[in-house]
Amino acid sequence: MAMILKPIGTHLILRRPKYTNPNIHSCKHKHHHRPLTAAFCSIHGPNSSSEDISLHQAQKMVNQFDPKVPIEEAVTPPSSWYKHPSFLELELHRVFYRGWQAVGHIQQIKDPHDFFTGRLGDVEFVVCRDDSGKIHAFHNVCRHHASLLASGSGQKSCFVCPYHAWTYGLDGHLVKATRIMGIQNFNVNEFGLIPIKVATWGPFILLNLDKRISPLREADSDTVADEWLGSCSEILSTNGVDSLLSYVCRREYTIECNWKVFCDNYLDGGYHVPYAHKGLAFGLQLQSYSTTIFENVSIQSCEGGTMERKDEYDRLGSKALYAFVYPNFMINRYGPWMDTNLVLPLGPRKCKVVFDYFIEASRKGTFSAHNLFRNVGQNQEKKRIAMYPNELNLFSPHRRMTKLS
Ligand code: FES
C-alpha cells in the first residue's frame, strides 16, 4: 500500500516502530537500527536543522516502521514526522496527491454557474458547474502567464483572467485570448484549463490529483465509493450521511500545528473526552464508546446521555457517529446534525480546519447557525481549537515517544 498514514487502532500511524526503546536520543541501538537511530540523532542534535533531512530521509523514516509490531507494543510516531518540511513534502506527494480527497460539498455548486476555489498543498483548484449542470474541476491557473484565475466562490458565466483577460468557459475551453492577432501557430484548443478528476459521493465533492490517471474519463460512482470509503460507503449512507441534509454554515480556523496533530486527537477513541471536554462527556455514555477500523475509514460511535441536563445537550441526540476518512476528513453525525472537519496542511506546523454544518431538512427551521454556536458546539469547538497551538508540546526536548492511546 502506498499510503503513509492509516488509522490503526485508535491512532494515526502507518506502521508500528520496530524499536521499543523510547529513549531514542541515546542511540543505544545503532547496530540494530542504524539508519533510524542516525536520523534521530541528527534531528535532535545541537547542530541539526530541518534542512538536514531530505525527502529521501523522510521516506527512510517511514520505512523504519514495521506493521508487524503488535499495537500493544507500539509507540507514537517521532516528532520529526510532525515538524520537518521534507516529511510534509513526502505526505503531499504520497498522500494528498493520490486518491480521492474531499474538498467541499455539493451545495457550494448547487446551480449552474456556481463555483468555489481552494488549495490542497501546492495545488490551487477551482470547481464549478457548467450551463448543462455538469461539474468540472480545473487547476486554477491561467494558461498564459499562470495568474490565479478565480478566487473565493460565487457565480460566473466564464472565468476572465485578472491579468490580461484571457477568458475561459466553465467547461475549461479558452473562449478568448486578447490581442493575439499575428501570433503564429496559436491553437486555442491547446490552451484550455488543465482539468482535475472530480467526483461526488453523497453530499461531498472529491478531487483526485493523481497525475497517473486521466482526469477526463468520467468517474464511475460505485468505483469512487469503493476507492474513497471501501466497505464503509454503505454504513455511512445508512447512518444518515446523505445529500438530503441541508447546509447551515461554515467556520474556518487556522491553527499553529501540524495537520496530523488534529487528526491524532480525533482518533484517540474518546480517551481525552472526559478530561478535555467535561461538558460533552456529560452528554455521552462513554462506556458505550467503540471504534471500528475499516480499510480507509475509522468509525467511532457512542450512545447519547440520558441525564438531567438533556435540554442542554439535545443537539447530540441518542447516538453519535464519528467517521474519520483517510487522510484528513471527519464526518460527525449526531441527532439531526452532521458536521464535517476538513484538515488542510498549510506548512509543517500550520493547518487550516474547515467546519461545515448540516441539518436534516425537516429540522432546518428549528436550529439556526446562531443557536448552533450558542449551544454545545461553540464551546466544544473552541476548546478543541484551543488545545492545538502549542502542538501539545510535541517538540519539547523533554518529549519522548510514548505508548499509543
Ligand atoms: S496571465 Fe492570464 S491572461 Fe495573462
UniProtKB/TrEMBL annotation:
Its main location: plastid. One of its GO terms (molecular function) is iron ion binding. It is found in: Plastid, Chloroplast stroma. Residues 100-207 form the Rieske domain. GO terms for cellular component: chloroplast stroma. PANTHER family: CHOLINE MONOOXYGENASE, CHLOROPLASTIC (PTHR43756). This is Choline monooxygenase, chloroplastic. The gene is LOC108980718.
